[in-house]
């Protein structure tokens, strides 16, 4: 978890480099190999690959954070309703979530993006909505288990009200790590979707704005002789997905 | 006190009086309504009772179940489950004390309850404690909450005999609280309980100050226990 936060922090540090990722076009210095001045060389327009790599992280970090926030708020809200109240409420909420889950997440995200537009907002909404049912189910399962626990009766016996028990003891103390991990995985999903879209469909972030997906796409299409033009963003995708994947890392 | 579920009468004419420093035991077979009686005192039944009638008076003033929570502590059979799994014992003691507007009693209270290493125990989580230690920690939480009465719901179940004996001794030494001790194990009571109530079918059928004083349904329980009790156990003279 900490490792992932550190990695994302580094990625967001692109502003520190002395090159503008979009404006510094130097056709004369195109496809330079890695050197001290350009640590990862330059691309077919002479732009610094490292600067574009770091700036490209914003293509998924910002929508990813938005998606995590949307899925987090909605998922915790709906999951709490279902898990805490149980009965008819749980049936309704779980039924509604099941209807969303019936559409594969990638297809759902694409549908949302078709409706809203292939913008960062569309990406955030699409990924967030696609991830929401999973998060809600996780929270609902957790609460359904916790609310029957003896320590909840014990907390009542101490004189605590239901709201306090739910908000503090169950959600904050006993569920927050779970939600945090899920939220981080959602940022990873946003990355994968963004790469998929801008590489395969040329649907995502458009040139000259950088994203890891369109960097790979352009590097392969222009046949750059600098291997870092495609290897760096491809490696970054693998690293970031691995870091965001809760199963791959330690907490 | 009287509790119904639908038309079914679960608890009938359950009445008793406990004074500070006194231990009143409620005994009875499984299903006789012991746990139900305790939980209805604090209005903590897991279902919505069809009808609940009766009253609880503290120092003569009538109190409802909800307002009693905290002043009256509940000690569970499953002590480990009654502690928050993700907070340390010390944090839960401090929290409980805070609810009563008091300072955290910290390790001193744990030491009084027989913890050999109270400092370390305060930093532990429920799953790291043995059954007996978890039960003591749960009692400590109730005491930290400044509860003046403890409702103990078979707190010795699942513990081995020496631990049971130590726990009962420690409860006995808590002179500042009144204790209502529910159990099906009569072996714990000599030297511990001031009074014994026998519950059967949701009704108090007998009351005595010692096991020897039990005659009817209580006598049957005493004799059933004799089979597994030490030779000093009061056996039937028949």
Largest sheet of chain A: none
* Chain pair sharing the greatest interface: A-B, 14 and 24 residues
- Tell me the name of the CATH class of chain A: Mainly Alpha
Named at the architecture level, the CATH assignment of the largest domain in chain B is 3-Layer(aba) Sandwich
Structural class of chain A: mainly alpha
- The helix-strand sequence of chain A is HHHHHHHHHH
Alpha-beta content class of chain B: alpha/beta
Quaternary state reads heterodimer
Portion in strands of chain A: under 5%
Strand order of the largest sheet of chain B: 7-8-9-3-10-11
Q: What percentage of residues of chain B falls in helices of 4 or more residues?
A: 25-40%
CATH topology of chain A: MetI-like fold
Quickly count the domains of chain B: 2
The profile of the biggest β sheet of chain B is:
6 strands, mixed
Distance between the termini of chain A: 5 Å
Mean pLDDT figure of chain A: 85
- The beta-strand count of chain A equals 0
What is the alpha-carbon Rg of chain A in Å?
22 Å
CATH class assignment of the largest domain in chain B: Alpha Beta
User: Kindly state the mean pLDDT of chain B as a whole number?
Assistant: 83
Distance between the termini of chain B: 37 Å
């Amino acid at each position: 978890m900490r490792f992932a936060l550190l990695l994302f922090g580094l990625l967001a540090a692109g502003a520190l480099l002395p090159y503008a990722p979009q404006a510094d076009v130097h056709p004369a210095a195109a496809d330079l190999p890695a050197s001290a001045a350009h640590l990862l060389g330059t691309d077919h327009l002479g732009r610094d690959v490292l600067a574009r790599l770091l700036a490209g992280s914003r293509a998924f970090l910002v929508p990813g954070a938005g998606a995590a926030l949307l899925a987090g708020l909605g998922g915790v809200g709906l999951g709490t309703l279902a898990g805490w109240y149980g009965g008819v409420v749980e049936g309704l909420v779980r039924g509604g979530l099941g209807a969303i889950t019936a559409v594969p997440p990638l297809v759902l995200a694409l549908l949302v993006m078709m409706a809203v537009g292939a913008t960062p907002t569309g990406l955030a909404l699409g990924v967030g909505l696609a991830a929401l049912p999973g998060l809600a189910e996780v929270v609902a399962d957790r609460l359904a288990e916790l609310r029957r626990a003896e320590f909840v009766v014990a907390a009542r016996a101490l004189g605590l009200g239901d709201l306090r028990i739910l908000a503090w003891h169950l959600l904050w103390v006993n569920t927050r790590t779970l939600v945090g991990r899920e939220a981080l995985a959602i940022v990873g999903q946003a990355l994968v979707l963004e790469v998929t879209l801008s590489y395969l469909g040329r649907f995502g972030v458009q040139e000259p704005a950088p994203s890891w997906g369109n960097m790979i796409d352009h590097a392969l299409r222009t046949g750059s002789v600098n291997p870092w033009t495609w290897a760096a963003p491809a490696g970054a995708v693998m690293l970031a997905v691995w870091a965001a994947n809760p199963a791959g890392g330690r907490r | 006190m009287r509790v119904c579920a639908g038309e079914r009468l679960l608890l009938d004419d359950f009445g008793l009086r406990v004074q500070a420093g006194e231990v009143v035991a409620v005994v009875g077979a499984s299903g006789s309504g012991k746990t139900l009686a305790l939980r209805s005192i604090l209005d903590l039944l897991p279902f919505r009772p069809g009808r609940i009638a009766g009253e609880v008076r503290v120092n003569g003033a009538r109190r409802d179940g909800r307002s009693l929570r905290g002043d009256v502590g509940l000690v569970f059979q499953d002590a480990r489950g009654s502690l928050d799994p993700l907070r340390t014992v010390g944090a839960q003691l401090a929290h409980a004390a805070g609810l009563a507007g008091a300072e955290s009693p910290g390790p001193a209270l744990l030491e009084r309850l027989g913890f050999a290493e109270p400092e370390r125990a305060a930093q532990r989580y429920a799953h790291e404690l043995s059954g007996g230690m978890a039960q003591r920690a749960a009692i400590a939480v109730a005491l930290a909450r400044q509860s003046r009465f403890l409702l103990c719901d078979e707190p010795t179940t699942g513990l081995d005999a020496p631990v049971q004996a130590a726990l009962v001794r420690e409860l006995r030494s808590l002179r500042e609280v009144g204790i209502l001790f529910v159990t099906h194990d009569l072996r714990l009571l000599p030297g511990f309980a001031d009074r014994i109530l026998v519950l059967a079918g949701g009704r108090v059928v007998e009351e005595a100050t010692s096991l020897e004083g039990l005659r009817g349904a209580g006598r049957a329980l005493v004799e059933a226990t004799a089979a597994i009790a030490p030779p000093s156990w009061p056996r039937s003279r028949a």
